[in-house]
Structure formats: C-alpha cells, structure tokens
Amino acid sequence: MTTTTPTARPTGGKSRTKNVVGVRHEVDAKELAAMGLRDRWYPIYPSRFVGVGDMVKVKRLGVDWLLFRDATGRIRMLEDRCPHRSAPLSVGQHLGDRVACKYHGVQVDGNGTVISVPGMPGCALEGRTVTTSLAVAEAADTIFAFMPLTADSEVTEFKLPDRLANPEVSWFSNFAEWKGPWRFYMDNVLDPMHGAFLHRDSHSMFGGDTSARFRIRETDRGFFFEKTDQRGVNFDWVEYCREAMDYVDLEIPYAESAGPGGNFGIVGMATPIDANNSAIFHWRTRTVSDWERDVWRFMYKATLEEKHWAVLEQDREVLEALAADADKDEHLYQHDLGVARIRRIYEADAEKQAAVLRGEGL
C-alpha cells in the first residue's frame, strides 16, 4: 500500500464560505449528493491499468485527475490542471518523479509542488504547492483515493473491507463504467428482491420464492437488509458498511458443481464519475486455501467469469435504461426499506457537508 498527503489549491484569501477541493464553484447539498460525498475513500481505477511511465486521465466526482507512477513505482494522483494556465497535465510528459505540462513546460511533482518553470527560472511559482494532490493507496488490484471536502479535511485511515483483507479469501477484481447516477447502483444492491426476478435465469439466482418479507438489522458498521423467511437460497441479504469507504457485502449460494469454497461473496462499490456516470467495482470472493484455491481460481476463469459478467449486464441494462429522475416519483413498499434507508443516510450526509461549506458551526 502506498500513500501520499493531499494538498489543495489556495483560494486566494480567507473566506467563511469554503469550496469543495477540485471544484471551482459553490456546491450545495443537491450537487454533493449527485456528484459524490466527500471526506471518504473511493476506488478510482484498477492498478493494472497504470503502468510505469503511463499517464492516465480519469474523471471522478466530477473532477479531472491524472494518475501516474513516479520513478519508484509509487502511484500519484493530481488534479489534471497545470498551475500556470490550467492546461491538462495528462497530455504532458512523464519525467520520472514529476510531470511536465506540454503548454509551457512547467514541471509538477507527485505532491503538487512546482519543481521548475523552464520559461522563467527562479520565478515565484517554483517551490509552491499549488496543484491538488490526493492521498492514495493501492490494494486489491485497485487504486483508492481519499476525496477531501475542503483543504482542511483530515485523511482518515485506509482500511480494506474484511473479505479483501482476509488472506484466506481468494478474490477476482472487476471494473466497469456504467451510464447512470451512482445512487442507482446503491439502490440496486440494497434491493435483494430483484435477484429473484431480474436474475431468475442466471446460473446462481434461480432458486427460492418470488415473494418475501424483509427487515433491517443494525451492525456496528452499518446495517443488514435481509429476508426474514429465506436464507442461503438466493440473493437473500446484503450488508451496507460504512468504514474507511462505503461498500456492500453480500453472498450468493453456490452449488457444489461450482467448485470448493461454499457461498460466493461479493464486495461492491460505486464511485461517481460525474452526476450521470459511475465507475463500478466488484470483488468476487470465496474462502479457499491450498489446492481448493487453485481449483476455484481455475474454474472461475474457465467457466464462471463469463456467467458473472452476464449477471452484471442484466443490472447494467436496467439501470442505464432508467430515467435520470427515476427515483423521484415512485411508490415504494416493504421490499424497499433498504433503498429508503440508504437514501436517507446520503441525504443527511450531503446536508452536513453543505453546512460545512457554508461555514456553519465552524
């Protein structure tokens, strides 16, 4: 795991109204909810997609970022703006421990500090940390970043979900980009009942009743949303977890023909790209060791991975077909307690963060 310390672009003077790091206009609770809440860790991009010497541009939470590895292989994440004239650094040159803007050659290191201004050596810009850099960590084949709300935000400790941190658990990572708000993904996974309908013809969710009763059960890190009258048959429960990052944890029963390891576990996360697009991350897991681990990993690549992608495609097709305001005019019932709960949590968070930006309670 690697980390860096975040810095933020100065605002040009003290103000009671703060602004979101990387965003150059005032943001309210509605926009925070749409573009992504701050002061938490998010998965950003698969580690394997950023090689030594690569410069990769990604948009996350509505901001353009540059990912690159420095001379030691350490991942760095900078706002994709040169501090001189805001040209994108991602189209510049990789210089090992820094990047050079293509426009005027200004060189910025992985901490966002200007190292050199070739056009005017010794100018006041040199030595200043004026490009936003983020705290990053690499784990589970993924680059994670802490997304601060303001320049004063303190980076929380990075912690992987239990399944991914457990050495007895073998996992495969999965990344996709979907058209649709990130909140649609969270609604979908907090709705286990859709498995008995949307995924009825899948390889793993064909069993069980198509009617059920649900309950919410509190945990020390979030809550379970689970069927009260069926367990271990279909997509019968999901746990929403709030730790270093927000994620969902669930299990799908597997037949013995799918190899050793018992139930198939899933850790899922969604990172907003912008208000209308989402980066979706899954880790598919089983608790296996020794020869059983080898069998499971062989079977996954040989037969199961394609089937798992087919299930994800069923979700993607439905969520991408939803209208952008699909969650604004609904008639919810008992199966939707999890959906209603997660929405209230995020609405409350957005209001609290908007209050911080307004300077309330400071």
TrEMBL record:
Domain of life per record: Bacteria
Cited InterPro entries: Cholesterol_7-desaturase, Rieske_2Fe-2S, Rieske_2Fe-2S_sf, VanA_C_cat
Pfam families per UniProt: Rieske, VanA_C
SUPFAM superfamilies: Bet v1-like (SSF55961), ISP domain (SSF50022)
Coiled coil stretches, renumbered: none
UniProtKB keywords: 2Fe-2S, Dioxygenase, Iron, Iron-sulfur, Metal-binding, Oxidoreductase
Domain Rieske: 41-145
GO molecular function terms noted in the UniProt entry: 2 iron, 2 sulfur cluster binding; dioxygenase activity; metal ion binding; monooxygenase activity; oxidoreductase activity, acting on paired donors, with incorporation or reduction of molecular oxygen
Name of the protein in question: 3-phenylpropionate dioxygenase
Protein species of origin: Pseudarthrobacter sulfonivorans
